[in-house]
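Two proteins follow. First one:
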Amino acid sequence: MTGKDLFGKAFMDFYKGRPHALKLERDDGYVDEQELSQYFNGYDDFPVCEKRALKHASGRVLDIGVGAGRVALHLQSKGFEVVGIDISENMLKICRDRGVKNLRRMSACDLRFKRNSFDTAIAFCNNFGLCGNMWSVMKMLERLHDIVRDGGVFLASSINPIRTTNMAHLRYHDINRARGRPPGQATLRDMYRGMKGQWWDLLMVTRPELKGLCDRTGWTIDRTYKGVMDVHVLRKI
């Protein structure tokens, strides 16, 4: 049985006090259970790398993959104007209920904003790679370059895929290389309450890969804060 927006359904159930396990299956059979509570954390429980990166935020902010709204709500409380986007209507409903003021249903791969609309863009929780592959992420960076003002920043979160000793991940990297893909491109699907979602790709990048993307799209890596998911402060040049 297949289902649409299983990610959003799982979060809505969790939010309403009816939690069930949400699992993420990779196309080599590797399965990982998602920890939903972290998406509702307050600022005190944010990863240290995110807290440090958020000090670079200024002006009007775009939150890409707003999720349950934790980052948007924190920045709103500090007086920032924040626009949160997500493709899941369930996630947007949760955000509205929790008090996020400005939300739009929109994909990270189709950023429909005017030039110079934002001073800061944010993509935490691995959302830097939502567009799935090198070409599509490059196009996202090009579009962000248009809609972020001169000197603005993009706070981009990504697991460094090769910083692992997990043999299942290392074998998957070898599979990717054999089929001409970067090691950190993963083909995934959600599994929730007996349903399986459609396959989709997520790109996780090494620092040299990130630098190559930045060099081609008008960004520079200002600094990196390391964590389970590194947060890179990319500055528009």
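Second one, unrelated to the first:
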Amino acid sequence: MALNSTKRVLLYRFDRLPIEGFAAGSLTESVAELITPGGNLYRFSPADVKALCFISEPGTGDLFSVRNSFERRPKLPGLWVRFTLRDEDQLDGVLPHNLLDWPVNGYLAIPPRAGPTRQRVYIPRTSITTTELLGVIGQPARKLSASKVEDSLEQRQLTIFDLHP
């Protein structure tokens, strides 16, 4: 998955304050760029990126300090995982079920308490030391009403006195 976007993001780096801006270019290249709302251009290596949080409103950089894990089992379907990063910070997230489309460069996850200041998080593989699968959450099975169950049983049931023409 090539992450190429001009969306508003919060760039988290190791041992530095997060920077808000617009991602310019792809994170899979050797040098990526971030343009701040003030017009400053930052160039950084994807190896220095801790996480890239997509946002729709300006906010504080609290992804790793406030509610970085789910308090209960998440409700949306997917793989509930916990990432441990190089600086020993941990972050929970929900990944899609599709294991055939497993990303090579990093993971795009839905963080706990997703909202306008933390919609999705891209975590490069270079910043991850361990990944734990905490649960597989699926779609709830549809429950049939009692009358529909009886109708379906009647349609499938063969009677002993049926005559075939």
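SUMMARY FIELD: The beta strands are 8-13, 19-24, 32-35, 41-44, 49-54, 78-85, 90-95, 106-109, 120-124, 128-137. The radius of gyration is 23 Å.
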